[in-house]
């Protein structure tokens, strides 16, 4: 009687939530009291689109992945290109010296960015956390950020107490995140009590920033204008390793497991939670009928320049890695660097009205 | 505003500093601490009740309630918060007060010919909840579907001028949809954050639907903001006919539901129980779409409405803005007065507002028409009468 009507739905959750699985899982709860219905609500409320494959499921806490593994594991397997959490181990590699190349053509690449997320062990995720728990995350992370070394030193701006002037500055810097409006996010409950417990940290150089309590407990972002992905990745690794060390000194840990890597709210972000991307101008290539196929073969994903669930403007796309789980950070950044270089070559060929057939990956 | 010392404030207490709703006025840290671990028998908690009020600090036109009920027992389980909110929202309501029901349309005076040059349409709605099933913010899919079944079975028993059909939102054809939109019957998935924050849009459009009679002047919404909303409406200013049909239909539906072994949530003190505390009592919103472009720009417009115990909304319903000086004008009160007296209040008030608009058209003063004191909102208390010239 409670099984959701998923007949019009196109998301990964729907592909694996059979009445049998639902019946098996519906009365289970995680140690934090989280239920299956809470995890799937976003997928029920947002039927999805036949072209865009969304997950349709969130983890209310770290334990959701195991408590409801009969659903989460097959969803993970489908979303992460066959990665099997039952048998596989996820590799971690935050050594930037292993990256080959990494300086992209700035005539096409407007900006470069690497982000990941980290969740604090013992506290439920943004869809389900209480106000007290959210405030605790804010405290733990901001405490740690105070101890960062010189070039990463900076200031925390709480969304609640931010002045109008600070707000305008953060908007100009493209740092400020808004209260989520996408129903993909709001249906999951992560916008509750906004803006309580939310804030932004950035270093004085404005190329390393941390979001607190947006879609995950924390999002760590390294970015700069232009195409020097190597520099962005180096700073990213250094920053995140420092933050982890500082949190551990106070007795806290990041949510992590051998088979799932770093644990985050959305099953699409587990593993390394890494999205490495560029804003790149590909007005000709993006009009090619094979554009989407090329992206898929390169294991890349396109988004509009406003982030998830936005549209592209003027042939400028946000291009990033599709995969998260089963490949290390170094591997994924390498794939983006190589893939974007190739697409720039294609764009150049198209500018000269030359064929790109031989460049298309098999 | 909370005055308790910081040391007493629970770590989970919401930050209500920028808030202006009834919940934020009444939820002191002490009340929060007292209620935070309680749950209703179905598991509904205080934090869930108040989520909409925490997420929506205020509204430009309406002093919102900022609180919802997940089930019938919410009102008693969290009475330390709900009672003061109810009293505040309903203009004072003592703990021992009894609510009056009067669904006899013959008790109405006038109201059959409000000037159609100003009154574009007339409408009366109320809500009802099926006892034993959780309310829209909290119900499971299974419960929502059960509610739909109980209500639609009862509606299928209506005949004569009330005979009609049910159109579930799931699987509705585009043709049906367009028709219902043209008739101004179709309700949308709520987008107002006042509603979505409370969780009532979950699983949309599962188990939601619209029923209407063949004459298209009596309709029922299933599982929108409440289990059931019953609406009687027509173009023009014959509020009396609208109310007559309303009372008729409502009583027939109640009779059928009873004979099928179900009942409506109701008690002597709070009247009919609905999701939002603002709709307790009669749950009745009787109103007109009123074209008053001159009066609505008058600096005393809001004050006049307030004194008449009337409320304005945009013509799209709650949380919308007015276009071209046409407003939805309806009764403010629901609890402590009967259906008849509330509709009477709208009729009398609208007659005066029309008079005022006519005066302004002739560039004459309206000062003598402005009520001197606020109309009494209680049928059980002694009314302070004021006279119009």
TrEMBL record, chain A:
Location of the Phosphagen kinase N-terminal domain: 1-81
Keyword list, A-Z: ATP-binding, Kinase, Nucleotide-binding, Transferase
InterPro entries per UniProt: ATP-guanido_PTrfase, ATP-guanido_PTrfase_cat, ATP-guanido_PTrfase_N, ATP-guanido_PTrfase_N_sf, Gln_synth/guanido_kin_cat_dom
Entry binding sites for ATP: 111-115, 174, 219, 275-279, 303-308
GO molecular function, one term: creatine kinase activity
EC nos: 2.7.3.2
CDD domains xref list: creatine_kinase_like
GO cellular component terms listed in the entry, alphabetical order: mitochondrion
GO biological process, one term: phosphocreatine biosynthetic process
Pfam families: ATP-gua_Ptrans, ATP-gua_PtransN
Superkingdom assignment: Eukaryota
Residue ranges of domain Phosphagen kinase C-terminal in the record: 108-350
Family: Belongs to the ATP:guanido phosphotransferase family.
Protein name as annotated: creatine kinase
Organism: Ciona intestinalis
């Amino acid at each position: 009687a409670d099984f959701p009507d998923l007949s019009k739905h196109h998301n990964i959750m729907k592909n694996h939530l059979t009445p049998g699985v639902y019946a098996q899982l519906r009365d289970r709860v995680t140690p934090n009291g989280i239920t299956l219905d809470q995890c799937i609500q976003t997928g029920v409320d947002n039927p999805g689109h036949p072209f865009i494959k969304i997950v349709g499921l969130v983890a209310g806490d770290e334990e959701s992945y195991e408590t409801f593994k009969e659903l989460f594991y097959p969803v993970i397997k489908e979303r992460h290109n066959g990665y099997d959490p039952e048998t596989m181990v996820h590799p971690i590699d935050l050594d930037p010296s292993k990256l080959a190349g990494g300086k992209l053509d700035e005539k096409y690449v407007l900006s470069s960015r690497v982000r990941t997320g980290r969740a604090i062990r013992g506290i439920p995720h943004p869809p389900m956390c209480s106000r007290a728990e959210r405030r605790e995350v804010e405290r733990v992370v901001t405490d740690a950020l105070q101890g960062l070394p010189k070039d990463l030193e900076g200031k925390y701006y709480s969304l609640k107490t931010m002045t109008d002037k600070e707000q305008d500055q953060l908007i100009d810097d493209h740092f400020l995140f808004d209260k989520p409006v996408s129903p993909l996010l709001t249906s999951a409950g992560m916008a509750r009590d906004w803006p309580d417990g939310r804030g932004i940290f950035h270093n004085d150089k404005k190329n390393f920033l941390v979001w607190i309590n947006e879609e995950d407990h924390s999002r760590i972002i390294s970015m700069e204008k232009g195409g020097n992905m190597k520099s962005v990745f180096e700073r990213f690794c250094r920053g995140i390793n420092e933050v982890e060390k500082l949190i551990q000194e106070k007795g806290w840990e990041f949510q992590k497991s051998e088979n799932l890597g770093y644990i985050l709210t959305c099953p699409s972000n587990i593993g390394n939670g890494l999205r490495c991307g560029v804003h790149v101008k590909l007005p000709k290539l993006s009009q090619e009928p094979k554009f989407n196929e090329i992206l898929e073969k390169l294991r890349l994903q396109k988004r509009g320049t406003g982030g998830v669930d936005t549209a592209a403007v003027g042939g400028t796309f946000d291009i990033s890695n599709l995969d998260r789980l089963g490949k290390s950070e170094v591997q994924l950044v390498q794939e983006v660097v190589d893939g974007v270089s190739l697409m720039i070559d294609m764009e150049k060929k198209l500018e000269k009205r030359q064929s790109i057939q031989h460049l298309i990956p098999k | 505003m909370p005055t308790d010392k910081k040391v007493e404030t629970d770590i989970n207490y919401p930050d209500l500093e920028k808030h202006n709703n009834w919940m934020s006025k009444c939820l002191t840290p002490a009340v929060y601490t007292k209620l935070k671990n309680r749950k209703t028998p179905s598991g509904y908690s205080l934090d869930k009740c108040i989520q909409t009020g925490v997420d929506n600090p205020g509204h430009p036109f309406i002093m919102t309630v900022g609180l919802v009920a997940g089930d019938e027992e919410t009102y008693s389980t969290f009475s330390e918060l709900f009672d003061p909110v109810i009293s505040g929202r309903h203009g004072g309501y003592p703990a021992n007060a009894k609510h009056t029901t009067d669904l006899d349309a013959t008790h109405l005076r006038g109201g059959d010919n409000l000037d159609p040059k100003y009154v574009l349409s007339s409408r009366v709605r109320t809500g009802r909840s099926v006892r034993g099933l959780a309310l829209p913010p909290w119900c499971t899919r299974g419960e929502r579907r059960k509610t739909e079944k109980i209500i639609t079975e009862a509606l299928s028993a209506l005949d004569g001028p009330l005979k009609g059909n049910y159109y579930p939102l799931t699987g509705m054809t585009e043709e049906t949809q367009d028709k219902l939109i043209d008739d101004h019957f179709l309700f949308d998935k709520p987008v107002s954050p006042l509603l979505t924050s409370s969780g009532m849009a979950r699983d949309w459009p599962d188990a939601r639907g619209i029923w209407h009679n063949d004459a298209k002047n009596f309709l029922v919404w299933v599982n929108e903001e409440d289990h059931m909303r019953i609406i009687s409406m027509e173009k023009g200013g014959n509020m009396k006919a609208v109310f007559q049909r309303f009372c008729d239909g409502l009583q027939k539906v109640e009779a059928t539901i009873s004979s099928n072994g179900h009942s409506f949530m109701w008690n002597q003190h709070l009247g009919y129980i609905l999701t939002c505390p603002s709709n307790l009592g009669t749950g009745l919103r009787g109103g007109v779409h009123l074209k008053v472009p001159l009066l609505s720009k008058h600096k005393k417009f809001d004050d006049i409405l307030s004194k008449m115990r009337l409320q304005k909304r945009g013509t799209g319903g709650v949380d919308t803005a007015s276009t071209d000086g046409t407003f939805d004008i309806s009764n403010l009160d629901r609890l402590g007065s009967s259906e008849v007296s509330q509709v009477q209040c709208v009729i009398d008030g609208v007659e005066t507002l029309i008079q005022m608009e006519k005066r302004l058209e002739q560039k004459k003063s309206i000062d003598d028409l402005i009520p001197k004191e606020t109309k009494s909102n209680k049928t059980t208390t002694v009314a302070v009468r004021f006279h119009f010239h």
